[in-house]
Amino acid sequence: MKFLYSDTQDYVDPSYDFINDRTGPDREKYWTDAYAHELMNPAPYDGLLLSMSAIRQAQGVATSKVRYSTKEEQRLLRYGARRFLRFGGPQHKDLMLMGDCGAFAYATNPTPAYSPMEVLEFYCDAEFTHGVSPDHIVFDCDLDNPPQSSVSKEIRDRFDITLSNAEEFLRLSASEDARFTPLGAVQGWSPASMGNAAHALESMGYEYLAVGGLVPLRVEAIKKVLVAIRERINPTTRLHLLGFAKAEKIQEFTAFGVASFDSTSPLIRAFKDQKANYYLESPRGGLDYYTAIRIPQAIENTRLVRGIKRGILSAEDLRRHETTALSTLRAYDLGQASASDALDAITDYHVLLVRASDQSIAQQERAVSSMRESVRRTIEDMPWKQCQCDICKAVGVEVIIFRSSNRNKRRGFHNLGVYHRHVKKTLENAL
Length: 431
Ligand SMILES: [Zn+2]
What we know:
The chain is an alpha/beta fold. It has helices spanning 36-39, 52-55, 70-79, 81-84, 116-126, 153-175, 191-204, 219-232, 265-272, 302-309, 315-333, 339-355, 361-381, 383-386, 390-395, 404-430; strands at 2-6, 11-12, 34-35, 47-51, 96-100, 130-132, 181-186, 208-211, 238-241, 258-263, 278-281, 287-290, 293-294, 401-402. Helix 7 (191-204) links the parallel strand 7 and strand 8 (208-211). Helix 5 packs across helix 6 (153-175) and helix 6 runs parallel beside helix 7. The protein is elongated, with a radius of gyration of 24 Å.
């Protein structure tokens, strides 16, 4: 089972100065930055997924969904995604590069944003190894399997468009001699309709199917969908799960013949999750999670700056506590301060941080003590010292500090590496 990371242009500055919180003197965005696979050996994933809607602006695609500038799009298509992503070294040459349309970005359009021919040309120019047929999202998966006659015309249209696009896409990719492996996109309004779609795609000639629409579904619902699909297709037909947000439950999916899936969640959780920010392999098997230590930059935090203006906080006090929190944590890492010194210094800074909020005194106290409890375990266990990945070896304690994207993304890269090993082990155990 291959784990693909869906590219969201995540790179960090290798020359970042953690002590002064400054980018390197010659830093140039993208050009001198490094992707996770450039910093880590082996790469922390089996491949990358790129969505066309994140790269190319089209009618109905929200500007906020397009991550690439026009120049970047042109460069990617001129040189191919492997060269653009610097994913072409000998150690990467066999790793997958999958393209899909990123249908969520144009979900409100009556029809998909790109034609099958446009998608085919895009995949060929980007030199992807795998390409998903242009689909249209069918909302609301009803697990009770309502028949086709009882669903709205709009849903039936989206279902039909996805299948007719897949048919044309497969025909074009054969006639144009495309060098990538085509995947047929499965969409539906229920497990049974997705089983029907999978069967139809297989009859067209697809040997690899990409199951969409899973993002909002719970684990049990996804399993129902996969059972319904597997019942209608050959055991040799491979499945890819698009946007698999339940990544930490992957061990429950080994029985469904899933060849690959893509997810961003290990990276995103490094800075979006309330508590589970840093992954570690548990000695009991599975994954263990730690809370990152929040020491935000006072001068860059609008709430704090407002607090200073309102006279609730003193800029000098903030800076002093921020510096002490950082230096005590670093001293603790070197064995020159105790765990309780580090915990106290961080708590003192947090007392100031919550003072700028609109919470009552009681709420502020609760917020500080809950932070203290979740961070205590992180400090005492020092998980960053247990990890041997290239990120943790290079930056040590900085990886656990929740502060600036250069630390937060590195923690995300580390999570991808831990998660990638976890998937491999899960698979070995299943076999
Ligand atoms: Zn690590």
